[in-house]
From TrEMBL:
<protein>
    <submittedName>
        <fullName>Complex I assembly factor TMEM126B, mitochondrial isoform X2</fullName>
    </submittedName>
</protein>
<dbReference type="InterPro" id="IPR009801">
    <property type="entry name" value="TMEM126"/>
</dbReference>
<feature type="transmembrane region" description="Helical">
    <location>
        <begin position="145"/>
        <end position="169"/>
    </location>
</feature>
<feature type="transmembrane region" description="Helical">
    <location>
        <begin position="72"/>
        <end position="93"/>
    </location>
</feature>
<keyword id="KW-0812">Transmembrane</keyword>
<keyword id="KW-0472">Membrane</keyword>
<keyword id="KW-0496">Mitochondrion</keyword>
<dbReference type="Pfam" id="PF07114">
    <property type="entry name" value="TMEM126"/>
</dbReference>
<dbReference type="GO" id="GO:0032981">
    <property type="term" value="P:mitochondrial respiratory chain complex I assembly"/>
</dbReference>
<feature type="transmembrane region" description="Helical">
    <location>
        <begin position="105"/>
        <end position="125"/>
    </location>
</feature>
<keyword id="KW-1133">Transmembrane helix</keyword>
<dbReference type="GO" id="GO:0031966">
    <property type="term" value="C:mitochondrial membrane"/>
</dbReference>
Length: 200
């Protein structure tokens, strides 16, 4: 290890530089070697630009067309993300509207409906079209992102707003009705104290 291509009189520690040809590099791995005084490449010089990214996306889409198990896992992941989004929006709207009842009903519907709608729409609009070859790479990415926005964000938010808003309105209406009933009983001479009714 001490004599990797050096001569006997050279001391690497004194110079502080490792010789360029000191170690053998496999032929399939290309590592850029920079010597002292050579400028570093800027991000603009990098070769990973639009054509390379498009080529990578095309390879991944071809892989998706061949492997059906990857599409199943991707679809389930997509649907699970929409279900978690539904749970989060339900939590936010329940907290904001101060709804304290029908918890199981709202959480069940707001996890199951976005999950199922995402899976069905992704299967019909993306997966089946991808298997048949009737969709281009750009359309595949566009449809997937639109399904993610529509079924994973907008649909759970609208569903949570409508369900929790209805429950909040119903609870507020019931509270007002109870207050009105108490007022009418007070005016008629009936006083309600805890569980006892006293008639004056």
């Amino acid at each position: 290890m001490a004599a990797l291509g050096r001569e006997a009189g050279d001391d690497v520690r004194v110079a502080g530089v490792v010789p360029v040809g000191a170690a053998e590099v496999p032929k399939d791995i290309k590592i850029p070697t920079y010597t002292h005084g050579q400028s570093r490449p800027s991000p603009g010089d990098a070769k990973l630009r639009k054509p390379v990214v498009i080529e990578i996306i095309e390879k991944k889409i071809e892989c998706l067309r061949k492997e059906k198990t990857l599409n199943i896992y991707g679809t389930l992941t997509f649907g699970t993300t929409a279900a978690f989004s539904g749970m989060l929006t339900n939590f936010i709207f329940r907290h904001r509207f101060k709804v304290t009842y029908d918890v199981l009903k709202t959480y069940t519907s707001l996890t199951a409906l976005p999950f199922l709608s995402t899976i069905v729409s992704y299967k019909l609009l993306v997966t089946d079209a991808l298997y048949s070859g009737n969709i281009s790479q750009e359309d595949c990415v566009l449809r997937s992102s639109l399904i993610g926005i529509a079924c994973g964000v907008l649909y759970p938010a609208a569903l949570a707003f409508s369900q929790n808003g209805r429950l909040a309105f119903k609870g507020d209406k019931k509270k007002k009705w109870m207050m009105k009933k108490e007022d009418s009983l007070k005016h008629s001479g009936v006083i309600i104290k805890s569980n006892h009714i006293c008639i004056m």
